[in-house]
Amino acid sequence: MNIFYLLIGVSLLAALIFLGAFIWAVRNGQFDDNETPSIRVLFDDDEPETEINEEKKQTT
Q1: 30 alpha carbon, distance to own chain's centre
Q2: pLDDT digit string (tens) for 3-48?
Q3: Is residue 53 part of a domain?
């Protein structure tokens, strides 16, 4: 039964270590996306579907 207390303590310690590593990574900008904004300019936006676009399709 004592092993359960040890395992719970070790697992909580491991969880705290991983949480600390995650917080450190977020604060240091490891998850910042520097590539996508420069690439996003190259892609065309789709035209939003509106009533005007539907009328154009029906007349042609």
Answers
A1: 12
A2: 999 999 999 999 999 999 999 999 998 888 888 877 877 877 666 6
A3: no
Name the residue range of residue 2's domain. Answer: 1-26
Strand, coil or helix: 40 = helix
In a domain, 38, yes or no: no
Q: What is the DSSP letter of 35?
A: S
> Per the structure block, which two tokens stand in for 52?
């005007």
Residues 6+ apart with CB under 8 A from 25: 31
Tell which wins on pLDDT, 56 or 44.
44
Instruction: Report the C-alpha gap between 12 and 60 in whole angstroms.
Output: 66
Residue 54 lies in a domain: no
Report if pTM > 0.90: no
How many independent structural domains does the chain possess? 1
